[in-house]
Amino acid sequence: MEEAKSQSLEEDFEGQATHTGPKGVINDWRKFKLESEDSDSVPPSKKEILRQMSSPQSRDNKDSKERFSRKMSIQEYELIHRDKEDENCLRKYRRQCMQDMHQKLSFGPRYGFVYELETGEQFLETIEKEQKITTIVVHIYEDGIKGCDALNSSFTCLAVEYPMVKFCKIKASNTGARDRFSSDVLPTLLVYKGGELISNFISVSEQFAEEFFAGDVESFLNEYGLLPERETHALDQTNTEEDIE
């Protein structure tokens, strides 16, 4: 008695619940697609095919087993091919959404070039009046100091790659604090955010090889978590995932 009741409950459960296995999920999706299609827009032959593909297989129904084991018909292939086209459209839509999202999330001003600060007052104004969300990287340099030219060139490249970061440079002699920035500590990098100094690196060229480039400076700043994610890298990663799919 108890066993029969349990079996009855199991049958009721199987009749009401959605499939949880991989094949079950596919069947549920096909059934949902059939039910969601406009009955006037789907030919009866295709509706019947979808119904056959979405119907669960009976344990004792030999006809059902034969139906599921038969080769795929041309009509079934056309339906699946159409579904793949729908998936391609969905991927294109997702890529467009990703691009829109990156544009919206990259809020705040955008720069894209290196700012030359002429005076100490301009330096202070840049730090104090910039938006709190903006990271400001300042290179204090002087002509003829080893590593300064290479760092300025690196800044030019990084400013393009990270337009949401404000890259600046100022001669030590123009800061109004030349005694603090002698040739012994140049080139110096100062990083600000929200008006606060969050990192400083004196004689930063010593962290690199004799010759260094923008990629070396980028890696160095990323080690300290001072650069945001590159927008182009995020979008390229999305495109790569879609190509794999």
TrEMBL record:
Coarse class of the protein's main subcellular location: other
GO (cellular component) term, any one: photoreceptor outer segment
Cytoplasm found in the keyword field: yes
Domain of life: Eukaryota
Species name: Acinonyx jubatus
Location of this chain's protein in the cell: Cell projection, Cilium, Photoreceptor outer segment; Cytoplasm, Cytosol; Nucleus; Photoreceptor inner segment
InterPro entries: Phosducin (IPR001200), Phosducin-like_reg (IPR051499), Phosducin_N_dom_sf (IPR023196), Phosducin_thioredoxin-like_dom (IPR024253), Thioredoxin-like_sf (IPR036249)
Biological role stated in the UniProt entry: Inhibits the transcriptional activation activity of the cone-rod homeobox CRX. May participate in the regulation of visual phototransduction or in the integration of photoreceptor metabolism.
Assigned protein family: Belongs to the phosducin family.
Domain Phosducin intervals: 1-240
Protein name: Phosducin
A biological-process GO annotation: regulation of G protein-coupled receptor signaling pathway
Keyword field: Cell projection, Cilium, Cytoplasm, Nucleus, Phosphoprotein, Sensory transduction, Vision
